[in-house]
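Notes from the 1:1 (GR / supervisor)

We went over the backlog. Supervisor wanted to see one worked example end to end before approving the batch request, so GR pasted a single chain during the call. The sequence is below; no edits were made to it. Supervisor asked that the structure be written out right there so they could see what the output format looks like.
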Amino acid sequence: MRPTAIATMLLAALFWAIHVPVMAAMDSPPTLISPQEVKSCAIQGINGIKWALSAAFRVALTDAAAAEPLLVFRFDSKSNPYYIVPFQKSKKVSVLVIVDAVTGRYKQASYLKDAVEYPRVSMDMALESLAAYLKIKSPAENVKLLEARLIWKPSEQSQSPFEPLWEISAESSVWYVDQHNKVHDRITEPLLKGGGEPPKKKNK
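Structure output shown during the call:
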């Protein structure tokens, strides 16, 4: 075998030895940080910008404790999933913090003018709404539930990452329930592009 051919074979072997593991890693789903780590990241993130918060924001944050994070998947797959970490007082949420679910990086926060239960629409409420939409007695008994998860992308149904939708996969169909408890059979592009924050709240 000629030296040139041997060199070519070695270069090819080296290429695949380097690139195949990298391509496999790119195809695999990202590893998510744990809910406990998320809480720490949210606390560090909000404390890091506390100096820039408005007086009303700081009041909402005072004595509020980080509660169980909510994992939200990006429907458009352009960004990592994220966690929404509610900060609550007496079981009512007054501050919301978004943290990247892969890197743990603080992304943004918002406070609620009036503390509320969050999310406004729980998974059970979304399933009941779907049952009513499909005119069945109970989703648990009459719908073969495959998966229910929170998802979000800028859309007509929600332009705020703080207001994700429940994506419910059942049998061969997929439905979406927004935080106003309305059922949708598809996600549509927003008529007006824009950023989003929860309603009835003040920004910093």
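Supervisor's comment: Residues 3-26, 195-199 have pLDDT under 50 and may be disordered.
Batch request approved.
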